[in-house]
Amino acid sequence: MKQKLLIGLLFCLFLNILNVRTDPLDYDWEKRISSGIIDKTEATELFWLEAMDNSFVALFNRHKIGEVKGAAIILHSIGGHADWPEVISPLRNMLPKFGWSTLSIQLPIISPENNIEEYGKTFQETNRRIIAAVNELRKRGFSRIIIIGHGFGALSSLVYFEKGESKYIDALIAISLQDYVYIKPPVNLLRLIEKIKIPTLDIFGSLDFKEGVESAPDRRLASKKSGNYLYTQIEVKGANHSFNNMENHLIQNIVDWIK
Questions:
Q1: What CATH code is carried by the domain that includes residue 68?
Q2: Where are the alpha helices (DSSP H) in the chain?
Q3: Which of 189, 185, 254 is nearest to 226 (CA)?
Q4: Cβ-count burial of 225 within 10 angstroms (0-12 exposed, 13-18 middle, 19+ buried)?
Q5: How far apart, in Å, do the first and last CA atoms of the chain sit?
Q6: pLDDT tens, position by position, 84-124
Q7: CA angle 96, 102, 103 (to 5 degrees)
Q8: Quick one: DSSP state of residue 244?
Q9: How many domains does one find in the chain?
Q10: pTM, rounded to two decimals
Q11: Which secondary structure element, helix H or strand E, spans residue 72, and what is its range?
């Protein structure tokens, strides 16, 4: 009896070790990054949201003018965070001046010992966080909600919509959208675009990453196959992937398109 109990305990221990090794998400490292954000960032509100058994940091900036246009959920790219200085921070701090409240959320991070291809396993957790962000904004009374994703955050948005979770989302803005061919399991970007039915802005820089610039015609074609006549593609001349020194051009294009 004791031998069977010992074998059972060893088996359970083995499963726990296996689960730790197969789960690429690093919540401890994410919490350390989030703590750094809390110490340095400026936001109307900074708080933690819950997604299943995990909490993540969210930065909320309220609109600055009298007429509220709606709220934007902002998703950063690989290697970034909820207040990343390139693209993310300018968006979340400047859109409120145009009547848009912003909710920038921290996306899951993989453990340093894992290969970057493991980011393909973060989509499920990201989906949960987007749902939590949508619920938070609806509790606050926002009836018009859009999602803005940059790089991998933009791709994550498309994966979210693939699951049919677009009920409370009015529009998608994908900045520097591209295929990440190295992630596993692989994701078919063009097939994801074909499934999008809501108003979509696909905006990128002429000096963006090669994968994003060269696939622009294919993305336009995929949108036509979907019958989404509310898809718009804009190339910002002279802008790179991070829109360095061209943040105003990026935001003005977004604001004009939303109108």
A1: 3.40.50.1820
A2: 2-22, 27-40, 88-94, 123-139, 152-162, 189-194, 210-214, 216-226, 247-258
A3: 189
A4: exposed
A5: 72
A6: 999 999 999 999 999 999 999 999 998 878 889 999 999 99
A7: 160
A8: T
A9: 1
A10: 0.87
A11: strand 70-75
